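Project standup — Tuesday

K.O.: blocked on the structure for the chain from last sprint. Re-posting the sequence here as requested.
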Amino acid sequence: MFVSLVEAMRVAVSAGRPEQQRLDLWAAALRVFNQLVGCLKVFSSRSAVGVCLKHSRRLVDLFVRHAIPMLELMLKQQKDEVLTILKNFQLSARYLHHVCNHSKGIKDASLMNHVPFLKKGLESFVFRVKAMLALNGCTDAFWMGNLKNRDLHGEEILSQVRV
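H.V.: unblocked you, prediction finished:
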């Protein structure tokens, strides 16, 4: 399903659609993406985590390259819709951070190969959104804090264990 979602969004961003239709497509895609990422809380097999890491990176990159510029243009006209889309994506981004921590925690080399690329995409998302909101005077819309290291089930991972 990740592959289908990424390919559908790749086709959708390349087609010349009106901005409102693209906004609606991204909103629907992010709802599906949230559900797919959320499935890892229940189905946390190694293969599911691998698929999530690999294809989430592709969707994050598409979002940063194609959706963020469109959202920047539409922020003044449709502030509430744009902020809702960003908040929905932020929920997935936060959980993807936990998936990356889980992959590093179990020390699986094949999973860890995807982590730097995904983290780079998530980082660029955060910085682009922060810059976009600062330019439009909406800095209070998002609060940036430190993420706690958590596993797939939401339990905190201690970063320093005392011996």
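K.O.: great, moving the ticket to review. The radius of gyration is 16 Å. The mean pLDDT is 84.
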